[in-house]
Amino acid sequence: ILANLAKKLVSVYDGFVVLTPTCKQDWGNKSNIVVIPNPLERIPKNKTSLNNKRAICVGTLNHNKGYDLLLESLALIKNEDWHIDIYGKGDPEEYIKLVKKLDLSLDKICFKGTTKYINNEYLSSDFLILPSRTEGFGMVLIEAMSYGLPCIAFDCPNGPKHLIDHEKNGFLVKNGNVNEMAYYIKTMLNTQSEQMQLMSSYAQNKINSYTMDEI
After folding, report:
1. Distance from the CA of 108 to the CA of which of 27, 37, 127, 147 falls in 20 to 30 A?
2. In this structure, are residues 199 and 168 in contact, taking their beta carbons and an 8 Å threshold?
């Protein structure tokens, strides 16, 4: 009832702004609904070297960000050579308990808290993983891509499908499917250098549509 009422209220406005085409559909695809994505404030001059043997996650430590799903995925490939650092505010205690329960190593997955210099962390990573259950847009995806990082994300509502071109600048995973997430993390880890460089270039090209001037 509330959802139908909200859609009717959209008609009251001269303009109603949403972040993605999917959001426009969700709100009834009315003619006064305008899609305006979030922009990147600046384009970095540097890009990752792609030889860091490290993945990164960026986002608040809460249920919606799906770190429990990420850990379940990693448990399926625990013998692979990977290291993942997670940056975001919040108490990691419940996730650390899950790490131990799944027999994962805290040497391979680290909860780093917050940093004022996330640009340095992007530059010293090879790819980004976004295991969110939902995303209004997925700002960290275009931030990571601007540094040349390919990205892996669940095809959750609503943003990732509009930012990740599957197998070009990253991998789009069936929403909530931990087995598929594990497969694509392993795939990324084993991707040859030349292919990673190509994905990195696709990632940087993708963000050209999200500059301040373009938006």
Report:
1. 147
2. yes
Q: Prior bond to 46 cis, omega within 30?
A: no
End-to-end CA distance of the chain: 34
What is the residue-wise DSSP string for 115-148?
-S-HHHHHHT-SEEEE--S-BSS-HHHHHHHHTT
Tell me the pairing of strands 127-130 and 109-113: unpaired
**Secondary structure of 58-124 in HEC code, one letter for each residue:** ECCCCHHHCHHHHHHHHHCCCCCCCCEEEECCCCCHHHHHHHHHCCCCCCCEEEEECCCCHHHHHHC
Partnered with residue 110 across adjacent β-strands are 85
Reported as a single tens digit per residue, the pLDDT across 19-65 is 999 999 989 899 999 999 999 999 999 999 999 989 999 999 999 99
